[in-house]
Design a protein that fits this description.
2 copies of one chain form a homodimer.
Chain A: H1 4-16, H2 33-48, E1 52-55, E2 61-65, E3 77-82, H3 95-111, E4 119-124, H4 137-142, H5 148-152, H6 162-168, E5 184-190, H7 195-199, E6 203-209, E7 211-220, E8 224-225, H8 237-254, E9 259-261, E10 265-268, E11 274-275, E12 278-287, H9 290-311, E13 314-323, E14 326-327, H10 330-342, E15 347-352, H11 357-361, E16 367-372, H12 388-406
Parallel strand pairs in A: 3-4, 3-5, 5-16, 6-15
Antiparallel strand pairs in A: 1-2, 2-4, 6-14, 6-16, 7-12, 7-13, 8-11, 9-12, 10-12
Helix pairs in contact in A: 1-3, 3-12, 8-9, 10-12
Bound molecules: N-(aminocarbonyl)-beta-alanine (2 copies).
Pfam families (chains A, B): M20_dimer, Peptidase_M20
Protein name (chains A, B): Zn-dependent hydrolase
InterPro entries (chains A, B): Amidase_Cbmase, Bact_exopeptidase_dim_dom, Peptidase_M20, Peptidase_M20_dimer
Chain lengths: 408, 408
């Protein structure tokens, strides 16, 4: 049975790593010193559980509980998520899924038995995509969507090369990328949205996951004097950036279901009395329906054209990530629902708003996700919160799902 | 007579200091190492001219050519401007006025005569206001608008204390602030706007200067996940910032004559998939008519109220600078026009769009300004340009104006 106390203690301990005393939460950005400490902690717990530890050449970490015949790969059941975070994150996003995976293997260890199939707990590199894009990078590459070289050569928002940072923190492993192909994949995660909390339901059986479109938009205007340049003669890169942000908001109002976020911005030279010569923004568009997502992308592209004309600026855009919506494996989703039923826990089918590693692994194996409520739907914020009770129930549903899958 | 070759050479040499090889131009931001080198160069030239050098307690530099009785203060005629720059600036903004002032004193030295009244060449501290606000800080304080302590305790956009930086670069002088009160003040400057260039006129006799309103606006929203937070539940500080920028653009369209610029912006945490928890922008509003400037300020304040309601964010604004429009001394403007006439140079009366030290010194002495054309009106940009011929004509009009004032 599930050792709930250890699970909660692990969540608490991992959550301390990378704590930000100024703005709250923890900033365990992929492949930073803080994230290395998080990795070391997870590897230490895997070692305690006597799992076989494998690290691949892009730093994905796998802890394997072999089956009764000693197999570590054949017909494996994988559980996983990530331990990197955004800035000033909560303690649960990603970590919960990895640590609950460890709790499942601990349930076997505590009973002194081995499973009928190998169980692999994965912690994928750089799920958040804050420093290196795209997000879900480690799982995407594991699923064959990126080569190891593409991953290692990725240049970060801070100008670093991913491969250099990976080597620096000592997590450039030996195992070739994509070695451990699972037969099924399960990911337990906090919802990060408001639905379960609002409806008072403890478990989400995630049936699908919305599409994600990430772009970086580079605008070049002309620097000039704020006091002497008539409004009609301006080529204001900053204004163009702002106009994209307000345009996207308006688009979402006309196209319900589309989410649009501009989370990051830079002006150059960024001085009070200089019209910005350049501006860079990121755009995050999402929709569970790929057609609507394409419509949003198209509307944005048209607005950029309008701005090129009206403001006399040049604009280039770069695709940082583009993932189609994913529909999870119907049978696996059913098993999750049955597991919740068997424990008499209320559940509902739902869509994931966030991107997850499961979205990538779904390319190579039947996959499903289990959600637990997020208080007020807050995530990517130090105030991200899920009740201990709900965390424990989620892990129990994960364990019951694993047990059900192993017994068939 | 004016030594045009030396003037052009000085402009060239000073323009090399703080050169930015990457983005062009020079960044000689107030009280940085680069600006210290610029100060050293100006002081060296003042020494060559055997001027009496005085540095006040906020770093304003004065080079004095005494009158025939050896007076350095009584009934002094001051010329001046500044040698600090914005990022990636042209070589002329400010420097031209200081170096032309030196060229006027050189004309006396070359002739071996002393003027009938002391002539003071001033280089005021931190005119640009990029690092420390308000702009025109040194001249404002010289005119009694700020105490030395207020200046020294100013905290910069980079978190530094002005007094510490001033001491660090060795320009914390002995002379009490405000010691050298001039009887008249003249400032020669590039127009930084397009009017003279467009109209093919070589000299602007600046009759007035528009009002300047600088604010910093701090917005606090709520960080949350870009993929899971419904648009209707967002408190997006970044969207609010963008909405201010587009609102100001619309306001200027309804209120011709008002200029509005948002030159600098920061989001927190500035990550692609996190709704910004905070955003900070600067707002630069200008108008030659104080009532219209107040209308713009009022409209902005009302828009902030709207945003507080509609976006559920908190917004605070801080006044960084607020200067009423200034009307220059009619008699002095007449003398400038007569000087241009005496040299048969085309001239026109005009308004200054940029703020200038003359605007501050006008509080304590009759003041006027002389403008020369700026190619295409470009300034605060490495491509700021004025023909040598125009630079020389401007300095000649300055010299003729000085000679006229000394002879009365
Ligand atoms: N679950 C999660 O926060 N993933 C990060 C990628 C994204 O959805 O922005
Ligand atoms: N002349 C000039 O560029 N002054 C800086 C202050 C302003 O922004 O007007």
């Amino acid at each position: 049975s599930l050792d709930a106390a250890t699970l909660l203690q692990h969540i608490e301990a991992l959550g301390q790593i990378g704590a930000d005393a100024v703005h709250g939460g923890r900033s365990r950005i992929a492949l930073t010193d803080a994230e290395k400490l998080g990795r070391d902690q997870v590897v230490a717990w895997m070692t305690e559980l006597d799992l076989t530890i494998q690290i691949d050449e892009i730093g994905n970490i796998f802890g394997i509980l072999p089956d009764q015949e000693g197999n570590t790969q054949h017909n494996a059941l994988m559980m996983g998520s990530h331990i990197d975070s955004v800035y000033n994150a909560g303690a649960l996003d990603g970590c919960y899924g990895v640590l609950a995976g460890l709790a499942v293997t601990k349930a076997f260890r505590d009973q002194g038995i081995l499973p009928t199939r190998p169980i692999i707990v994965a912690a994928f590199t750089n799920e958040e995509g804050v420093r290196y894009q795209p997000d879900m990078m480690g799982s995407l590459a594991h699923a064959g969507g990126l080569s190891a070289l593409q991953v290692l050569n990725t240049i970060g928002t801070d100008g670093t090369r991913l491969g250099d940072e990976l080597a620096r923190i000592g997590y450039h492993g030996d195992m070739p990328l994509g070695t451990l192909k699972p037969s099924q994949y399960l990911e337990l995660h906090i919802e990060q949205g408001p639905i379960l909390d609002k409806e008072g339901i403890q478990i989400g059986a995630v049936a699908n996951l919305q599409g994600i479109s990430w772009q970086k938009i580079y605008i070049k205007g002309k620097a000039n004097h704020a006091g002497t340049t008539p409004m009609s003669m301006r080529h204001d890169a900053g204004y163009a950036a702002a106009s994209i942000i307000t345009f996207l908001r308006e688009h979402t109002q006309q196209s319900p279901g589309t989410l649009a976020t501009v989370g990051s911005i830079q002006f150059e030279p960024n001085a009070i009395n200089v019209i910005p010569r350049a501006a860079t923004i990121t755009v995050d568009l999402r929709n569970p329906d790929n057609k609507s997502l394409c419509t949003a992308e198209q509307a944005l592209a048209e607005h950029l054209d309008t701005l090129r004309q009206s403001e006399g600026v040049t604009i280039e855009s770069e695709v940082l990530a583009r993932f189609d919506p994913v529909i999870f494996d119907e049978q696996l989703v059913n098993v999750v629902e049955q597991a919740a039923n068997s424990l008499s826990i209320a559940h509902k089918r739902m869509t994931s708003g966030a991107g997850h590693d499961a979205q990538m692994i779904a390319r190579i194996a039947p996959s499903a996700m289990i959600f637990v409520p997020s208080k007020d739907g807050i995530s990517h914020n130090p105030r991200e919160f899920t009740k201990d009770e709900d965390l424990i129930q989620g892990a129990k549903v994960l364990l019951a799902t694993v047990e059900s899958l192993l017994s068939h």
